[in-house]
Amino acid sequence: MADLVSSLKDLRVLEGLAAKNSVIHRLHPFAKLSMALSIICFSASFGRYSFAQLSLYLFYPFIMMALAELPYSVLLPRLAAALPFCLFAGIANVAMERTPAFYIGSIAITFGTVSLMTIMLKMYICVMAALIMVATTPISDLSAQLRRLHVPGSFVLVFEITYRYIGLLLEQALSMATAYRLRSGDRKALLMRDMPSFLGQMLLSGFDRAERVYAAMQCRGYAIDHIRQSKKKLKTADIAAIGLTLALAACGRFFIFW
Length: 258
Hints:
The protein is mainly α. The chain has two domains: 20-137 and 231-254, no CATH class; 147-226, no CATH class. It has helices spanning 2-18, 29-44, 51-54, 59-68, 72-75, 83-96, 111-136, 139-148, 153-183, 195-219, 236-255; strands spanning 100-104, 107-110. β1 (100-104) and β2 form a beta hairpin. α2 runs antiparallel to α7 (111-136).
C-alpha cells in the first residue's frame, strides 16, 4: 500500500510542478515540445563512442532545471525506470569490446566502457528532456498542442486518457488495499490466493469509474476530434528559445569535434 501512496503522490507532484510560474513554464507549449524533441533527436543521432561530444548536451537539463526551478529530488528518481534496460545493454558491450580506447594513468579504458558511458549519458539527457517538458507543461496544453500539429487523434486520445485514468486506477487500488487491510486483521500484505479476485475487482471498478468519468467529459463538450483553442501565441521569447536550443544542439553535433 505504501507503493500505491507513493505512486499517487508522484503523479500529483508532477501536476503541481506543471502549475508553477517560471520563465520556462511561461513558454508556449510548442516551444517546449520543439526544444525537447530537438535535444532528443540530436542526442540519439550520436554514435556509440561519442561520450565527449555528447557531454556538451548536459547544458540542456542543467539550464532548464535551474530556470524552471525544478527539484532534482523529484525528477531524478524517475530515471530508474529506464536505467535497467540501458545498464544491461551497456554491460554487454563492456563484456564484448575489450580493446583499450585510451589510458588514464596505467588504467585502460576499453571501447566497451566508453560505449556504456555513452548509453547512460544519452539515456539521462533524453529522459530528462522529456521529464522537464512534462513537469513544465500541463497535460491538457501538451495534448492540445499535439492535436494542432496534426498528430493522429487516436494517439493523442490514448496519451491523454491513459494519463488521466492512471490516477483513477491508483486511487481505486489504494481504496481497495485499505479495505482489504482493515478486513484482514494484522495482515499487512496481500495474500497470493486473494490476488486474482483483488485484481479482477479493481479492474471492474476502474472500468466502471472510467466510463462515468468519460461520460462526464462528453457532457462538458469533450470529443475525440476536439481541439482546444488557445489565445496564447508564439512570442519573441518562444522563438528565441527554440532557435537558441536548435543552434546549440546543431553546433554540438556538427561543428564541435573532440
